[in-house]
Every structure is written in structure tokens, then in C-alpha cells.
Amino acid sequence: MPDKILTISVAAYNAARDISRCLDSFLIPEVMDQIEVIVVNDGSRDNTKEIAEQYSSKYPGTFKVIDKENGGHGSTINAALGAATGKFFKVVDSDDTVEREGFLYLLEQLEKTSADLIFTPYHHVFDNGGRIEDASYLLTEEGVEFGKEVPLAAVCDKIQVPMHALAYRTKMLQDSPYRMDEKCFYVDVEYTIYYLIYVKNVLLLDKPVYNYYIGDEGQSINIDNMRARRAQHLRVCRSILDFYENEKDGMSFEMRTFISNNIVDMALNHEYRLLVSLVDGKESLKELREFDGYLRNKSRFLYDLVTARGRQKHDKKIALVGLMRKTGFAGYRLVHAVLNKKLTREL
After folding, report:
1. Is the pTM of this model over 0.85?
2. E strands, the chain, where?
3. pLDDT of residue 347
4. Which of the residues 103, 207, 234, 343 could staple to 98 if both were Cys, CB 3.0 to 4.6 A apart?
5. Strand (E) positions, 57-138?
6. Residues 189-216: pLDDT tens digits?
7. Is residue 1 pLDDT above 60, yes or no?
8. Could you tell me if 178 and 251 lie in one domain?
């Protein structure tokens, strides 16, 4: 059997409704001998495992199934990474798919590149395919050369790191001491941040690969689910902050700027917006004060960067946090009561 070019990690928990659509998207004859799709059944209570095993039985050279006790999305990435044999590694959720043309092009590029990290555009798919929007990892296309390996430092001011856009060099991940938090949602931030410190060269591509389906009420990014699971989001923020404090002195100026900006945009400001969005004003104030004090003591640099990035992005909730900081959050409950419907409707 030839060496695999790409390992795809598919986290599957009670995914019987959607997983066939996901796995069918990899049934591309031209590349099935080049890919390894590892379905990690994360303690499902439905027939997810049986469906996945139908694929591994019919296409044993392409699909594998790992069956384990429930441990959360991070545990499925950790498990797949431990078993991965592909040159590169990509995560695809069980309710999402890959785009045939873009996937073929990605495999073609992966076969010949020596980059540590490959970026591809993706799609947001709404209403189960009723509406599709292009999404990009690029902040600007100015000066970007697609299909050419370049140092990460040369383009870090032009890109962001959404999980759906990434394919990492597998050995680089496997050699790292960092793994995802288990029994925890929102670990995609860890996956996108931890390994950047090892990346030297990147490859930027321009064909969409990933179809990210949005709109299911059960998704972890649903605002009600996020409020209910906010302790897990806080846990991820704390893990990311520990990582930053441990690694910052070894980063170049460009890398430190890039990683700190992404930590603020993807984790810290999301945490502030989540806490402002709590329906109970008293609870919101209490948790905001606790997190704000914790962050200030942990990293004054990132603490100040929160409001700076909020101003750059014209983020009204972060602007409110900045204003309330000046008053020691005095008057916050009154403001929260007046603006309650606007603050609590969405993140």
C-alpha cells in the first residue's frame, strides 16, 4: 500500500444522521489510495459506529474506525493524531463535507509540498445547502502568491487561522508535547494556536476544500449552548493563556504579534462577548469581573490588547467592556438591564 498523503480525523458522536454525507464526500476514486479517514466514534449511543464500520469494511484501505469512551472533540483529535500515518493531518467534523474539486487540488499540492501548514478557503453552508457563502483565511490578498511556499513570518499579517482552513504536517503535531483538552468543547482554538510556534513555511491555496454546515440548534456555537457550556470555554481560554506565557519568550516579534492577535480574536474577546451575553445581569457582572481580573494578572499585554483589537474591529461589546473597565464595572448592571435584548440575542 502506498504511503498516505493525508490523514483526515472525523470526530463522531451520535452522528448517525449526517456521517454518511461526510464520509461519502471522500469517495473520490482518484485519491482514495492517498488518504486515510479515521473516524473516531466518541462513545455514541446511536448507530454511528455501525455506519462507520460499513465504510471501513467496504474500503479498508481508506477508512479506519477508532471506538472509544466519550471524551469530547479534543479527545478524538488526540486519538486520531496518535494513529495517523499520513504526511499531513486535517480535521473534518462528521456533519461537514469536503468539496471534490478543491480536495483533489489539495491532494495534488500536498504530494509535492514540504510546507508545515497549508491553508485553503472554505464554504459556510446554511440551511442544509440552501445558501452557500465563501469564507477565507485571508485578511487581504495584497501581495499573496498562491501555490508557493513562503515563510509564515512573511504572510502572518495577511492571514487568520480558522480550523476549517488548515492542514498541518503530521509529524510536526505528533512531535509536539501539546494536545487538546479532553471532555471539553471549543478546543478548535487550541488546535489552531498551539502548533503555530513550530511552523516555518506555509502554502496558501485558493480553491475551497471544506463545507462547514451552519444552523443546527445542537451545534456547540449556538448561543444558548455556549452559555450553558461557558465553563468549558473559560477552561480553553486558561489553557491558551498558559501556553502563551510558557512560549512567548521563545517567539520572534512577528510570531508573538500573530499569535497574540489570534488568541485575543479567537478566544479572549469571544469570552468577554459570551459573558456580556448572559441573561442575568448580576451573574454577568460577577463572571466578567472575575475573568477580567484573572486576565489582568495573567498577562497585562493581552489584557490591553483585548480593547485595542476590539476598537480595530468596531466590536460594540468589547467597547462596553473597555468603558466598564474605567469605572471598575460600576453601573454595569444598569447598562446591561437597559441593553439586555441587544446584548443577549447573539455573540
Report:
1. yes
2. 6-12, 35-42, 63-68, 88-91, 97-98, 117-119, 122-126, 131-135, 149-151, 166-169, 201-204, 210-214
3. 78
4. 103
5. 63-68, 88-91, 97-98, 117-119, 122-126, 131-135
6. 999 999 999 999 999 999 999 999 987 5
7. no
8. no
